[in-house]
Amino acid sequence: MATKLGKQTYKPDNPPYIISTGTVAGPFEGQGPVGKYFDHVYTDTLAGERSFENAEKEMMTNACFTCLNKVNITPQEVDFFLAGDLLNQTITSGFSALELAVPYLGIYGACSTSALGLAISTMLVDGDYARLVLAATSSHNSSAERQFRFPTEYGAHRKPTTQWTVTGAGAALVAKEGTGPRITYFTIGKVTDMGIKDANNLGAAMAPAAAATMVQHFADTGNGPEYYDLIVTGDLGKFGHELAIKTCITRGGFDLTKNYSDCGIMIYDLEKQDVHAGASGCASSALVTYGYLYRQMLAGKLKKLLLVATGALHSQCSVQQGSNIPTIAHAVSIEVE
Amino acid sequence: MSRDPKKKPLTVDQKRYSELVNELVPKPLYLRNAIMAFVFGGVVCIIGQFFTDLYKISFKLSSTEAGNPAVATMIFLGALLTGLGLFDKIARYGGAGLSVPVTGFANSVVASALEFKREGLVFGVGSKMFMLAGSVITFGVVTAFVIGLIYAIFIL
Amino acid sequence: MEWQTYMMAFLVGGAICVVAQLILDFTNFTPGHVLSAFVVAGGILGGLGLYDKLVQIAGAGATMPISSFGNALVKGAMAEAERNGVIGVLTGMFELTSTGITAAIIFGFLTALVFNPEG
């Protein structure tokens, strides 16, 4: 069982292991700076399917099977499948769960789903409810664009704060025993609203949530930012990243300038790839963490990582009705000995 | 857009944060965008003028009559570019220069029809076609109705 | 077919687009809002008889932007109102704009049949 630290942070008594990960990405993400760390890069965004929604399902399913195959584990051995995505009713996850035939818990945290999945997996494994939990998430540029914004072929002018939804999926297998990086702490965030209404400026909407969760995590654990080799947020983009740094200084006096980056900045080449402020989408944090950073940890180049996945919990309807964008962030501390 | 029914005032924290956001977030490149919109919009109108003149001469139409087939031609071109997946790429540079002329109207119709093709001909193409362009028609008709009514009752 | 016509089409058409671009960049209005507003503005100018003057000066520079759609709706309604009174407002509404709407529906439908969204 876990120990509760401070207000929102938990420390598992037996930190579970992330024994395997699976990452698949669209062609555009494959061309990015961390593209070579993904297990599979599709040559087209339809992934051989009839629609973008089906393509996303294929990607999530593929990421899950890739993750399991790497450690020779069959779906029958997995106790729970935790998955979430951006589409209405998290339909991608539902269909993937159908293919996997593993007891399924649907979760929704928008783009914070990767960390949410890892945190709940830790609860299940450390709480002796499960030995093996598979946590997955996905997003697809074309299916998300049309649900949250405009048809993809519509010539709408993009503002500099617009972010590009990542196409891809990532899965992680969390186990009671094994080898690999371990989940040592997790901090569950509170929903934050700082009055941002602009769905084209999600980085600014999510930055306060990220900052609040990070400050709480540092306060609860007593470990400052310098404890970690690297702190990454999920998909704040260029401006959200700066806003998070500023907010962390004003709220708790924590200096993030040395070891803090954002998956939404790392996944694309902001100079060459025309993505404006960076990436967004569930797959942003999943691809960078499960693909690139996980491998860095296995290779021993990275020992202590704090993943702070950020999510904007709005719907197209809530934005059109003029409601503020509610946002959340969950933090998961991943360490190798 | 914000049309909050019960406008909740921003808290001090929210206000301070939105000031920080405004300070940090870059403004669009106003001048560059304006110049691009001007050039692209102007060029689209020149092409439209060319077709108007072409139909005027080849079918011996008056300027007003030649306007209709010219508009249809521009809509065809907008639709074709959208179908080929080029319109959104050009519009990234041209901005309002492409969306304000009828080419933009065509783009909004075709993009919606195309996007929802996989939901079938009836629920997809048929009903989603005017998803974006519908408001233009609605407001145009309402305006024209009000003005027409004023004209018919008070002026005639 | 003089070059002045083309220059005026370029200048006026371009200027109308710049106004829209500035609204988009300086406010949080979406293209949908701006285009709807332009149609309304075109309709009002049409009702006052000013839009036709602009068309005479600028040719396609005034007929190509979406504001001309509002103008054409109003003119259709007004012309028919002269003949049939209030009923004419209803019957004449789409008289001049049917080309644009029909073309958009037909080409939209055909394009949707032929092409697939690229994503």
Question: Keywords, please?
Answer:
heterotrimer, A: alpha/beta, Peroxisomal Thiolase, Chain A, domain 1, 2 domains, globular, B: 0% strand
What does this structure look like?
The complex is a heterotrimer of chains A (337), B (156) and C (119). Chain A is an alpha/beta fold. Chain A has two domains: 174 residues, Peroxisomal Thiolase, Chain A, domain 1; 154 residues, Peroxisomal Thiolase, Chain A, domain 1, CATH 3.40.47. In chain A, the strands form three sheets. A seven-stranded mixed β-sheet of chain A has the order 1-2-10-15-14-11-12, sandwiched between helices. Chain A has a six-stranded mixed β-sheet with strand order 4-3-9-7-5-6, with helices on both faces. In chain A, a hairpin with a 3-residue loop joins strand 1 and strand 2. Chain A is globular and about 50 Å long. In chain A, 61% of the residues are buried. The model of chain A has no long low-confidence stretch (mean pLDDT 95). Chain B is mainly α and 156 residues long. Chain B has a domain of 100 residues. In chain B, helix 3 runs parallel beside helix 6. The longest helix of chain B has 29 residues. Chain B is extended, with a radius of gyration of 21 Å. With 119 residues, chain C is mainly alpha-helical. Chain C has one domain. Helices cover 81% and strands 0% of the residues of chain C. The radius of gyration of chain C is 17 Å and the shape is globular. Chain C starts with a helix and ends in a 5-residue tail after the last helix. In chain C, 55% of the residues are buried. The model of chain C has no long low-confidence stretch (mean pLDDT 92). Chains in contact: A-B, A-C, B-C. Chains B and C meet through helix 2, helix 3, helix 5, helix 6 and helix 8 of B and helix 1, helix 2, helix 4, helix 5 and helix 6 of C. Chain B: It comes from Desulfoscipio geothermicus DSM 3669. Chain B: This is Stage V sporulation protein AC. Chain B: It holds the Pfam family SpoVAC_SpoVAEB.
